[in-house]
Amino acid sequence: MSRRLRTVLLAVALTVAAGLPGVAAALPAQAAAPVRIMALGDSITAGPGCWRAKLWHQLQAGGYTNIDFVGTQSDGGGCNPGYSYDFDHEGHGGYSATGIAANDQLPPWLAASTPDVVMMHLGTNDMWGGYIPLQDKLTAFTKLIGQMRANNPNMKIIVAQIIPMSAAACATCPADVAALDQAIPAWAAGLTTAQSPITVADLWTGYDAVADNVDGTHPNDTGFQKMANAWYPAVVKVLGGTTPPTTTPTTVPTTAPTTAPTTAPTTAPAGTCTATYKIASQWGDGFQGEVTVRNGSAASSSGWTANFAFPDGQQLTQAWNAQVTQSGTAVTARNVSWNGTLAAGATATFGFLASWTGKNTAPAVTCALS
């Protein structure tokens, strides 16, 4: 039901009540209006975009029932998940962030649906061919944020670090996705406000661009489930709730995996710090890795350091979510400002790109808390 219709019905009820003998004009307190949530995106959201159905189901099961998914589009129930869900969305197959911004397509969609919250997963269609500069994508994102706030100054905005694309789908796309996703947290931090906060949702953690996509770009059912799982804590945060820390993603997206992940966990002294090294994806002469540091002590930490030595001459080319340096084979990573404080049992993950030749053996990692 639209807000305008609810307002009209309430006004009529007040008028009738005021005209009846012995009836006061004031009505009992009304239930809070549902929070209107718009899923804004491309074909990953639209066709069929079944992460929306799974997310709806998770929210309902978690007690977040006073919500309304809104948008000018509907999937008509095409996901057939075996439970009811809200079909409405604002996904448009083939649309890009730069195109939506340049053509001012978002304002009428917002006007038609009047959302309180926008969940944005855009950027995939800006990757094809590798010809759109990163700054142009971020400029488009900034314009879209401005249009959301023009529609509703109190808009709550959730921006996704988008799911990875495989090299089979587009040779330049894996690295371009990684560059965009690496840039999003700082971009969001520069635009967020108390009145209209921007929350970043990491949709990469645990996502495999080959195994979780049907064509290197669009999710299969496992991919949709992983997307819903990643959206959930961000949406709950915006709705004012809490989720267990173990459900919150901590890393930025990666390039496309082409090999099964390999993991080489190593443990520091018991009860202090543990670190896990993972090759998330590998191709030609390059690969992407990640290291997860865990506070195994009973107290909160204020910082952490991880150390390892590449056994086969691998060379770092870039890193994110940590200050990472390499000297010869030795690599040292230190926390950045936003991920140094770890509660007992909490984790932080940093990622990197590197080159390799011949062999790519996973190193042992040690870590320390401060």
From TrEMBL:
Superkingdom of the organism of origin: Bacteria
Domain CBM2: 266-370
Region (Disordered): 242-267
InterPro entries: CBD2 (IPR001919), CBM2/CBM3_carb-bd_dom_sf (IPR008965), CBM2_carb-bd_dom_sf (IPR012291), CBM2_CS (IPR018366), Ester_Hydrolysis_Enzymes (IPR051532), SGNH_hydro (IPR013830), SGNH_hydro_sf (IPR036514)
Signal peptide: 1-31
Keywords carried by this UniProt record: Carbohydrate metabolism, Glycosidase, Hydrolase, Polysaccharide degradation, Signal
PANTHER family, per database record: CELLULOSE-BINDING PROTEIN, THIOESTERASE 1/PROTEASE 1/LYSOPHOSPHOLIPASE L1
UniProt-recorded name of the protein: CBM2 domain-containing protein
